[in-house]
Amino acid sequence: MRPWTFPIALQGPSEAGARDPLFQQIAQAIRSDIRRGRLKPGDALPGSRSLAQTLGVHRNTVLAAYRELEAEGWTTTGQRATHVAADLPEAPARRGRREQGPGYDLEMPHPAPARLSLRDAPPHRLLFGGGLPDLRLVPTDLLARAYRRALKVPSLLGYGDARGEPRLRTALAHLLSETRGLSVSAEQVLVASGSQGALDLVARNLLKPGDRVAVEDPGYPAAWATLRASGATLLPLPVDAAGLRVEALEAALREGPVRAIYLTPHHQFPTTVTMNAARRLRLLEVARRHRIALLEDDYDNEFHYEGRPVLPLASNDPGGVVIYLGTLSKILAPGLRIGFLTGPQALINALGARRAASEGQGDHAIQRVAAELLEDGLLQRHARKMRRTYLARRGTLAASLEKHLHGVVHFEVPPGGMSLWLQVDPGLDADRWAERAERQGVTIYTGRRFDFRGQARPNLRLGFSSLNERELEEAVGRLARALP
Ligand SMILES: Cc1ncc(COP(=O)(O)O)c(C=O)c1O
């Protein structure tokens, strides 16, 4: 790559303030680029002929500039080219322009915890994660073929509906009706950049600074960060074996209004428990009475192994309080950023307008790909295949834990989801264990990560979906060796 283009604005003699001869202006521009660090020792300057042509000056003018720079020690001229000198007459600025802080006040957002990225992981490291799909098994050939087709549709490469590619909205409405008991039209579906993007749109539309929003504790910190970014004051509510404790919500309501609740009733994140029927009815009733929006995140419902999946709150919502969030991150790949939400038409239109005013729209070509895969049943087939794979992995992880860590960890195998939630023996420091495991090449999440106040909890969340059975056994063996 050529390191340098030469944007020098030369001022002619007729222009106000132009006093220096042209060769000095050129020398000055190059000197300043070296001082700023934009040109580095060893970088080649353009040939005098080509630079003269670019700038529209006589070649002798450029040669004069180069001679001056060389005389001052900024450059050296070899047989073929002029280079920035290795030893400069003064040290270049340590901080380039790009690294300078902003000249205005900047507000730092509330950070979401870093997600596991395969890109940063050293080889042979086994990442349990909190429930990522196995990215090695993504149907990339199918995706690539469909994407190639989509890219040939001119309308998909232009501007489109901010609420999402219409065929995907239709396909998602069908999917939700077939698998999640929802009765929604395509018009009531909005496609966003992951369910995180969907939650962000809702939060920015619904919440005013200071609004109280309840969340599960332990819960999903990425959603907390999104809600806080909209100015919400979060209210942690405890979770037990039947899901969110609704009586804690009722107690909070006695102290002031609650505008919304973000929750994961199907497979509670991170504990994996399913909210029971009595709690659901009570929650819907409280929300209806107090006009609370229920932000229901149904993130990995496709992976349910025993019995029928429990239907979402949104499937039985006479009060019209539920905003349903879904994602293709778990059955396809999170990097494609396809999430969606459904709610009343007025909400979808309002969020569409908001999206038009921020990102404009998403990638309609990739959305068409998802639409085609759904229309042809290929995505459903892939999900069925992954369900079998993950079921086997769940069994392998549970068996390995029993074999290597019996008595040290306790768990119930959840009927669905992509992770196990372990209780760690109270005498054991889970965070220290995780640090030691890290040194053995295994990354695990401890309960602290999901605790609202960041306090230690005697738990681990082990995702079983992104490692194959051999890797799971190896990882559990390493965990056992890393016991503090
Ligand atoms: C609780 C929860 N919700 C949603 C998601 C999916 O987020 P997105 O659709 O933004 O990729 C995840 C993925 O990690 C999750 O754990």
Distance between the terminal alpha carbons, to the nearest Å? 51 Å
Strand percentage, roughly? Answer: 5-15%
CATH superfamily of the largest domain: Type I PLP-dependent aspartate aminotransferase-like (Major domain)
Bound molecules: pyridoxal-5'-phosphate
Low-confidence stretches: none
- By secondary-structure content and strand pairing, the structural class works out as alpha/beta
Level-2 CATH architecture of the largest domain:
3-Layer(aba) Sandwich
* Residues in helices, as a percent range: 25-40%
Whole-number mean pLDDT:
92
Question: How is the largest sheet built, in terms of strand order?
Answer: 4-11-10-9-8-5-6-7
- Rg calculated over all Cα atoms: 29 Å
Number of alpha- plus pi-helical segments? 14
Q: At the first level of CATH, what is the class of the largest domain? A: Alpha Beta
Largest sheet at a glance?
8 strands, mixed
Return the CATH topology of the largest domain. Answer: Aspartate Aminotransferase, domain 2
Number of self-contained structural domains: 3
Instruction: Name the helix and strand elements from N-terminus to C-terminus, one letter apiece.
Output: HHHEEEHHEHEHEEHEHEEEHHHEEHEEEH
| Total strand segments | 16
What is the molecular shape?
Answer: globular
